[in-house]
Fold:
Amino acid sequence: MKLWFTAALIALAGAVRAEVLLSADEIEQTLSFGPWPPSFHSDPSNRVSNNARAIALGEALFNDPVLSVDGAFSCASCHDPEQAFTTPEARALGRVLLDRNTPSLQNLAGLRWYGWGGKSDNLWAASLHPIIEEQEMAHNADSLKTAISESTYIDEFEVLFGDIQVQDSELVLVNIAKTLSAYLETLATDQTQFDAFRDALENQDLAAAVSYPEAAQRGLQLFIGRGNCVLCHNGPRFSNNEFHDAGVPYFLNETEVDEGRFGGLNFLLSSPYTLDGNWNDDPNRQGAWAVRNVRRNHSDFGTFRTPSLRGVSETAPYMHNGSLSDLNAVIRHYSKIDTERLHADGEAILSELNLSEQEIADLVAFLVTLSKELY
Amino acid sequence: MIRCAVWCMIWSSTAFACDVTGQRMNSEVQNAPEVYLSVDEIPLAQPFSVLVSICSETAVGQMGVDAIMPAHRHGLNYTPKVTALGGGAFRVDDMLFHMPGLWELQVNVDINGQSIFYSSEITLK
Structure:
């Protein structure tokens, strides 16, 4: 960081100590959570990324049950646009009760991994898998090609991709997934009360900065300090997009477990739909380094992708299995975490925080400022 | 967000003249050739590259790179890609530090048939 900027931060903290609670170092850390929103970059692996026709077709398909084999439900049935692209059930209900909580679909553009177990390294693959998953949309490539051929979307599809009849069914499947991806990458959360605070600090706009609630500031101090939340929830998305053991039980029943990242990697490394595969439209294979170089460890078992905290107060319940009903419960989980549940050979990050009631309330006050409701 | 890395130097250099820049890496092997690490900025949770320069009069064989967070008891999630540039220099790509905190970057170099271990501490804010 340049000297003049560091000096400005120190001066800022000193000048407004009575109103802005953060130290110069805390202000510097706070700046790392922005700016928001990030600049948009087209996905080179998807030739219809940022294409207006593809975005429109993707949105229409997302909301249409044509993507399920029997027309039973659409993507939006579980990823409800009116509910931050999730639903309030603890675990998703497809054709059966699924094992995991439905993740929100906002702010997905440009991630390294997708899904709780990271079984996809790109957004079009993450869009493709539910279409052919037996417990979800249950199409196969042939049935999907027939459904699209007979739908009202055939003309738009052929404008984008050409004559469907000369396309192999798998190509149709990938093309449909790429239109969904083109739509999904447009879903981004807006600036929040936190971002206004963060930008005010950057601009040294003290009048604006001091309007951020003191409870939220204290919560932010815990978040980046004693709470160690920032170890995993960092950067503008409040996620390092990697995989961790959060001390949440991963037993599905007496005999089955959710393998988490371990299973996600097994799936990923046998998938033809990765950035290192032939369906990638990018001749430079940008981003494929991750799937080529990712390490497999036994400690991946039962770890799950760090969720973004953007819009977090709109996406209850929480954790990979939706077992915690609200943000208060999440904070209490980490405050009194049962370290016996953590992997014996896993990372040593979490320990009991023993937060006071005031500290729990402050952390919740901070987290809700990452969502739009209070803005 | 690009973050600044704070480099912790272990000791200063002398011995075999070597026209390189960067931070000298630590080794417990007596009279081990000097090894230097060069990196501009380390982005948190994003891939970055480093340059490792080995100041040895004798031929340098293979080099391996890894890193750990000693306090967190974990290492890298990705295997870095090492490319020999000749003259004892190696480019290391696809390094990724996925957490802030103290990392120990580790290098194993084959020199004269002996594998020599080097390390440097890096604090990523």
Notes: Chain B has no helices and twelve strands. Chain B has a mean pLDDT of 86. The first strand of chain B starts at residue 2 and ends at 3. The interface with chain A takes residues 1, 3-4, 44-45, 47, 69, 71-74, 76-81, 93-94, 98-101, 125 of chain B (CB under 8 Å).
